[in-house]
Every structure is written in structure tokens, then in C-alpha cells.
Amino acid sequence: MNDPILEAKNIEKWYGPTPALRDMSLVIGRGEIVAVTGPSGCGKSTLLHCLSGILRPDQGSVQFQQRDITNVSEATRSRLRRTAFGVLFQFGQIVPELTAVENVTLPLQLGGSRFRDAAVRAQRLLDRLGVGDLAGKRPGEMSGGQQQRVALARALVTEPEVLFADEPTGALDSLAGEQVMVELVRLAGDHGTTVLVVTHNVQVAAYADREITMRDGQLETAGQVTVAGEAR
């Protein structure tokens, strides 16, 4: 494994009396693509949300680049998600009133970039993802696969160090889902981005360097790092 970039140490998360994560520990190396799999309700998405700072664990700690981010302010965690982290959700969650290029520029503008400069960068990424011709279109004028590519562009436009993807192909047909994963892996590799992808789809998990399995809020197996389908 490469140098650790993200680490969960004995984290727990409860929803009322129900445990979602139980004494969960995990280390992710810089540049790794890790798939988190397991049955529905096992805590996969909760783990992703805790690691990305969307949720705060009830116990334990999360470290990013050896810095504890568990108890930092909400403003600091939001800033991390605008700069060092990118998040891609199952349904994209792009803003329906905005065009594709306006959606992609949002993280840059929130960071202080001028729209004109942000739009140039956004257009370049949309072109790479094969949806550059949709820059002026709104989500309602796009297919589900096209919307997810726009959402991927928005998640990657800041060139984050870690991309968190929560069932990124769950709302797509198999062809569109495969296209999104090919593009995600290619762009992540170009920028050395670490990827944590939550999925129940074995075809999606096959794109990862390593697959880890969860069950009942705990790590069942940490998997092996693989190259071209061979364990190492």
C-alpha cells in the first residue's frame, strides 16, 4: 500500500439505538481505488459519509493526511469537501436550474474563482468526459448517464485528493454505468486521486485496486490490492 492518506480509527456511528458502524478501522493508501461492498444496510454509505466529513462519528477518529478531522468545525469540513475532497452521489444531485457548465463551476466559485476562469476549466473537463456539447443544457435536457458525467466533472473540477463515490452507477443502465466508471478511473489516475467507491455492483467493484467487504457495521475483509485482476 502507498503512504496512508485516509484512516478511520475505531469509529462508531449510531442512529438512535441502532449501530450503523461498530469499532470500524480502515486505512486507505494515497492513489488507491478502493471499493466498499456488502449487503444493504451494512453501513457502507455511513462509512463514506464519516470519512468525507458529511457525518461526524459518535466515537473514534478520522484522519486525513495524518490530521484528525473528526472534531474540526463544520466550516472546516465544508472547506475540505470543496477542495481536498470530491463527492459523487448515486443520483448526481446536480442543480436542476443550472446548466451543465454552471453546475461544474460551483465548487470553484465557492472557493473564490471568477466564473469566467471557472467556466474554462469546467468546459475542459466536460469535453474530456464527452459531454462538452451539453455545457449550456440543463439536467432535464440530459439522459441519466449524461447527468452523472456532469456530476463527475463537478466532483473532480477542483482536482481533489480523495474522491468519494456513493453508488455512482446505481441509477444507470449497465452501459452508462460502465462508461462512467471507465471515465472515473481514467481521470483519477491522471491526477493521482484516491477513490473510495461504495457499491453493491460486482462489475463496479472490479474497477478497484482493492475490495473491502462490510457486514453489520464492521469490516469483514480488507481485501487484497490487485493489478489487472491478479492479487498482490
Automatic annotation (TrEMBL):
GO cellular component terms, semicolon-separated: plasma membrane
Domain ABC transporter: 6-231
Key words, A-Z: ATP-binding, Nucleotide-binding, Transport
One GO molecular-function entry: ATP binding
A Pfam family: ABC_tran
Classification via InterPro entries: AAA+_ATPase, ABC_transporter-like_ATP-bd, ABC_transporter-like_CS, ABC_transpr_LolD-like, MacB-like_ATP-bd, P-loop_NTPase
Protein known as: ABC transporter ATP-binding protein
Native organism: Micromonospora craterilacus
